Structure of CocE/NonD family hydrolase:
Amino acid sequence: MAEFHTIDAGGQAIAVRKDLQVPMRDGVTLVADAYSGVADKPRPALVALSPYGKELQALALTTPPQRRPSPMWDGCIEAGDIARVVEEDYVHVIGDLRGSGGSGGEMIGNYNAGGVPLGQDAYDFIEWVAAQPWCDGNVGMIGISYFGSMQVLAAAERPPHLKAIFVSGGHYDFYETTYHGGVMWFMPRAAREGRGGDSGIAHTNVKSRMQEVYSPEQLGKLVDERLADPDVAAWPNLVHVLKYPRNRELWFDIVLNHLDGDWYEERNPVTLAPNIDIPVWLQIDQGRGWTMDGTIELFNSVKGPKKLDIGPYPPMQSRPFVEEHDKMFRWYDHWLKGIDNGIMDEPAVTVFVEGSRERVTGSQWPPKDVEYRPLYLRPRHRLSFEPEAMSAEHAAPDGFYQAPLTVTDKVEILSWSTEAFTEPTELIGTGAAHLFAEIDQDDTNFILRLWDAAPDGARRLLTTGYLKASHRELDERSTEGNPYHPHTRDVPVEPGKIEEYVLRIYPFAATLLPGHRLTAELSNDEPLADAHNALLPPDAFHLPVGRPVTHKIYRDAARPSRLVLPFVTRRP
């Protein structure tokens, strides 16, 4: 039963409405907590919805914000700063999604993609909040990552009282949430199972969609097919999940579905985004290029007033999540309280540029005019604006042999670097890497990382690109410097055949200062530890290749392996 009491949080009195019962149209009841000032008056409400548990979010009242590498950092405390929300005179409403926490119903599959649409539940939840005497009928939403995706799913349903959303660090393409270039990423395992500094989903009634759809015999066949992939078979946790999916239902479903298609697309926030016509603020920090990709795609899809705000590296915000609140309250003061604070007079797009540490603005992404220019891989580990003139017999390929990580702890890396830049050189946008490569197996990973290398030896990661070789097919959306892969089927590689692989280089913004060099690194696994991965939870790496592979990278006159990058054109 719901209860009401007051608490003191840092000298501020907060009214707490605990375990509110929120009815859904199908008879299921969700539970929520509401936090507000003690004065008896209606206020605008900011709604946070996830399966991570409202009690976990309540730790924001007692746990000072933690940043990596604090062992107290918990990636699932993402609903925002409760005390700050109350201080700004909003009601903070934190709810548990069906099948999680204290709520009824069941969650079937990732984001409940096999059950009741989460956007439908969000619609009912928001309209219930708007009707309460402590709410003035104006509702926004709050929270990052899963909470952010929920904001987009809610807005796509167009609940009448949802007036605006402010989304930070959400995931909008469910396939790209877990498979980058077809290469499996382990971060979602942490968010679901609770590993590597994440509490994970507050399971109460969570089910596998695959187990709902397929018979045990069919599932057994699908599991065997997945274990035929040497990468999967060589990774103990994946073998365990596939053989014993109990309490790992959502991760089991993702592991089984390694190709894109209806499974991921039918309820993708990006797929539903054209329905959104309310004001939308989208914020993302650099360093997770794939998430930036989805954020930009979403920005281009929504129809109403909108802002795109791309911040600096690193991406790992504090937990409890407290960043971006100043911008958020300006946004909601305008759209929920009707305060003319000038926010809509400011540019639609703001981008922090690494290197120069400037913020550039514009009306679209990228905010400046760019020209795609090639940088060619050359002998002696050079990157050059001029193509290689020599033929294959004089420009022998670069190569590396990578043993599986079951027998080695060494990750082989090829690198190529430009000469030092003599003037500031700005790049903003997506890019591509065209690699003419030969391998001696039917598959491998290509992992590319771009670095800004300073004269003193310091390096800053700019962006990344990933491609599973069997996912090399391109689709009709591809343009120069902006490739897309459908990821709808595996096409095994013919061993010994030289093929052109085109990697998508995820969006970034950087200025190479005088004396700095651009370095491209290529491997088929990620380094086990380095400065970049140290900023992320332990599970934030990609599935290694489970077979020994020899790679040859050709970069001669006939096979011009190259990067294609977005150089900002200088206006007079």
